[in-house]
Write a structure and sequence with these properties.
Rossmann fold; eight-stranded antiparallel beta sheet; 25 strands; globular; binds 5-amino-5-deoxy-1-O-phosphono-D-mannitol
């Protein structure tokens, strides 16, 4: 949550910071602001999107070669102008941008008020900059020392950058549990929550670690220390991402682009892992930890949102093929419920961003308790990826739309590869079945391409139901998590209430909701329990529900009882979620567009949830 950007160098800072904020807007869009240093410290901030700030700042003094900027997802304090970042110290000398939460801000604020500090906002961040100001004055220390001292007093998560009127050639940045990347250009530096604002200027970056402080000075080598002042040797890494990947490329929305990218992103997830000639699967992280996986008592997945739905698919896949017991946990519950864990457990975190606070905390808890920890992340160098003993990147490319699409199918691809690898190593799969599944997996990108051809038909269906107040999604077996995912997609971007249910569970309650106004999306491909799903759909029909069936090509039985059917190619049910989810993504996309919703940045949400 919240995006931060900073620049110091020889160029004008404002255009760089503003463009960076637009790239980071997916992280929060409640307000935006910048602080620039000309002869004075100029702060401009506005509630709402970055474009509001842009209009507001148009006629202001924007001259500065150093600047910081912030786009906010509100936690402490309403999303208004006053609570927007940057926040300044009481003496107007310092300004700060912050992503994270200072948990003990209230106690610190009370102390500072006693010492005469006056606060303008309701934010935790303003407390931190006043604390730094207080330490500079009381201890007569430099800015960097004061930052370190203050961070020793702070409990919580932070990625911060501070600008100082008395040190116009310097920025101080620090992080703990919130991401922060520093770009090293030619006599210029960039700081941001992720690499997207940096990529067009330099590929050389440093990922700051927890409790590290960077002293960034114009014309100097960057200096990094930890909060105890131990010198750290900066590790410069090269970014692999390219600029095209983070632009819309002619699509109206990032979400649509990302839906259409799935044939390529699924292929990228398999690249170097599935040999299309021999059908052999090699998943690096699993090979590395082979002994642990072979002796594991359990695999426990921890994840949130869409990634949690992928984990459910992973449970079905691994138990089905590799016969290893699997549990799936909401990371936010797992971390606080004192779970029983042992050294023979493998805890796998699934996260697109690799920054989800609950998932990271669940993983850290598992590590403390001696479990082996593994990460399935999309963002290279993210906190979860770096915290794990081993892992597999999904390689789906940057996902900018807040609603996760290509990350879901990439995660499932990795989980399929994992299940196949484990099953082969355990000897729990026949050679023929293994070959059959790897051949079909290899063909999935083509099949996804075929499903995408139904876009116009799906758009037509969206038009029929765009005004519905509720939706029900039903699926069985591998398609049950897909039903959950379809419902989540619809509610998060179109604000229509939707629920996903195991088809057979409907009769235990939700059936009471069904009448002629209820659209029911039934994911009813030709899987083992096909006939039972048909019976469940009959139960909907008998109560006048409107059925939209996602069916296997050539299906007649469901067509006969449905208002609409969307055909998808036949595949083994093990791989079904990779294609059955595509029509659901498109359906929610079109409904949201028709309802005039902000598809890429739905209200109240943010792409990466770095708060509890
Ligand atoms: O980055 P992560 O995969 O850890 O994010 C988890 C959820 O916040 C995320 O999947 C969220 O539910 C999406 N908005 C769903 O589209």
């Amino acid at each position: 949550m919240c995006g931060i950007v900073a620049y110091i160098g020889h160029q004008q800072a404002y255009p760089i910071v503003l463009k960076g904020l637009k790239r980071l807007e997916y992280r929060g869009y409640d307000s935006a602001g910048v602080a620039l240093l000309d002869t004075d410290l100029n702060i401009y901030k506005k509630a709402g999107k970055v474009s509001n700030l842009e209009n507001f700042a148009e006629d202001k003094n924007l001259n500065s070669t150093v600047g910081i900027g912030h786009t906010r997802w509100a936690t402490h304090g309403a999303p208004n102008d006053v609570n927007a970042h940057p926040h300044k110290s009481g003496n107007d000398r310092l300004a700060i941008i912050h992503n994270g939460i200072i948990e003990n801000y209230d106690a610190l604020k009370k102390e500072l008020i006693k010492r005469g500090h006056i606060f303008e906002s309701d934010t935790d961040t303003e407390v931190l900059i006043h604390l730094i100001e207080e330490i500079i004055a009381k201890d007569n220390v430099s800015l960097e020392e004061a930052v370190r001292y203050s961070l020793n007093e702070v409990i919580g998560a932070y990625a911060i950058v501070i600008i100082d009127k008395e040190n116009p050639n310097k920025l101080i940045a620090a992080r703990n549990s919130s991401p922060l990347v520093i770009g090293i250009g030619k006599e210029e530096f960039f700081v941001a929550s992720d690499a997207t604002p940096i990529i067009e200027f330099t590929k050389n970056v440093i990922y700051l670690d927890d409790e590290q402080v960077a002293i960034i000075e114009r014309g100097q080598e960057i200096k990094i220390v930890d909060i105890a002042n131990k010198q750290i040797t900066p590790m410069i890494q090269e970014l692999e991402m390219n600029l095209e990947a983070i632009e819309k490329g002619g699509y109206e929305h990032f979400m649509l682009k990302e839906i259409y990218e799935q044939p390529q992103s699924i292929r990228a997830s398999m690249l170097g892992r599935l040999n299309s000639v021999t059908g052999e699967v090699t998943l690096g992280g699993v090979e590395e930890f082979e002994a642990k996986f072979m002796n594991a008592d359990r695999i426990i997945f921890v994840a949130c949102g869409t990634s949690w739905h992928s984990a459910l698919v992973g449970e079905y896949m691994i138990e089905d093929l590799a016969r290893i017991p699997v549990e799936v946990e909401y990371a936010s519950e797992f971390r606080y419920r004192n779970p029983i864990l042992s050294e023979k457990d493998i805890v796998i975190a699934i996260s697109q961003s690799g920054e989800t606070a609950d998932t990271l905390a669940a993983l850290e808890l598992a590590k403390e308790k001696g479990a082996t920890i593994y990460g399935i992340c999309n963002v290279v160098g993210s906190s979860i990826a770096r915290a794990t003993d081993a892992g597999s990147y999904t390689h789906a490319g940057p996902e900018i739309g807040v609603a996760s699409t290509k990350a879901f199918t990439a995660q499932i691809t990795i989980l399929a590869l994992m299940a196949l690898t484990l099953a082969q190593k355990k000897g729990s799969i026949t050679k023929t079945r293994y070959q059959e599944l790897t051949n079909q997996l290899n063909d999935i990108p083509r099949l996804v391409g075929k499903v995408l051809e139904s876009n116009e038909q799906i758009k037509y269906i969206a038009e029929q139901y765009k005004d519905a107040a509720n939706f029900l999604y039903l699926g069985r077996g591998y398609n049950f998590p897909v039903a959950l995912e379809g419902a989540l997609k619809l509610k998060e971007i179109s604000y229509i209430h939707a629920e996903g249910y195991p088809a057979a569970e409907m009769k235990h309650g939700p059936i009471a909701l069904i009448d002629e106004n209820m659209p029911v999306v039934a994911i009813a491909t030709r899987i083992a329990n096909y006939q039972k799903v048909v019976s469940n759909i009959q139960e909907v029909k008998a109560r006048n529900g409107n059925i939209i069936g996602i069916v296997t090509e050539g299906d007649e039985a469901i067509r006969a009882i449905s208002e609409h059917v969307i055909e998808i190619p036949a595949t083994d049910e093990f791989l079904d979620p990779l294609i059955s989810v595509i029509p659901l993504q498109l359906l929610s996309y079109h409904i949201a567009v028709m309802r005039d919703c902000n598809v890429d940045q739905p209200r109240n949400l943010a792409k990466s949830v770095t708060v509890e």
